[in-house]
Amino acid sequence: MKLHYLGIALFAIGLGPVTAATAPHTHWSYTSPTGPDEWGDLHKDHALCNSGTQQSPINIKANTPGVLPALDIHYPAGPVVVKHHGHSLEVTTENKGYVALTSGNYNFVQLHFHAPAEEQIEGRQYPFSAHLVHRDASGNLAVITLLFDVGAKNKALAPLFASMPRHEGDSVILSKLDLASLFPAKRDYYAYMGSLTTPPCTEGVRWQVLKVSGTVSAKQLKAFKQLFPMNARPIQPTNGRMVKFGG
Ligand SMILES: [Zn+2]
């Protein structure tokens, strides 16, 4: 693993990957014969990718109005590690960030990106998204999706786009990344129960998809897609799930 020190801050990587349950050496991808249609057959631990009934992503059609308070996020800005893990770039940090949901507090584990975005809103697919993965003290997962259109340059992500690790296994340390500044001012969201969108497709994941989208520039998106041309799982059946919305 090559490390490029871009900042003065150096720290130990203490967070375990959220996908620790994945069979470690099972190769999967976004194209056949190891693509999304085959994930469930690649390893017995991935069976839910085929047989699950609460899978993600979904085409979001809000069907259950409710009272969802604006997302209560707490992410201190600071140094982060950006790792190329083969399927996306993954951002981790030692800072103790968390999101407070009505079901409790979930600690930030990692952030990664998809191009195009995986979830759709009323059939619309955005060109880029970020998934912020969290875990509570009991191991329950909660993911926040930020959607991005092509438009103005994303200033918060500029340091990341400017120095992306280009090969699988490579990491870059950025001296500062402000996760909170990735969020829109109005933090209303859709909420539903789903799964991880990569093997092992674990269910019971609490999803929060922000309604207001941000932007990345065409140049930023192109730079990401040079590394990851397509890393989105196709839309999964909703199977009558509730999609709550408020705000
Ligand atoms: Zn994701």
Automatic annotation (TrEMBL):
Domain Alpha-carbonic anhydrase: 26-247
Key words, A-Z: Lyase, Metal-binding, Signal, Zinc
EC number: 4.2.1.1
First and last residue of the signal peptide: 1-20
An MF annotation (GO) of this entry: zinc ion binding
Pfam family membership, one: Carb_anhydrase
Membrane-spanning ranges: none
Catalytic activity annotation: hydrogencarbonate + H(+) = CO2 + H2O
InterPro entries cross-referenced by the UniProt entry: Alpha_CA_prokaryot-like, CA_dom, CA_dom_sf, Carbonic_anhydrase_a-class
PANTHER family linked: CARBONIC ANHYDRASE
Family per record: Belongs to the alpha-carbonic anhydrase family.
Name of the molecule in the record: carbonic anhydrase
Species name: Pseudomonas fragi
Lineage: Bacteria, Pseudomonadati, Pseudomonadota, Gammaproteobacteria, Pseudomonadales
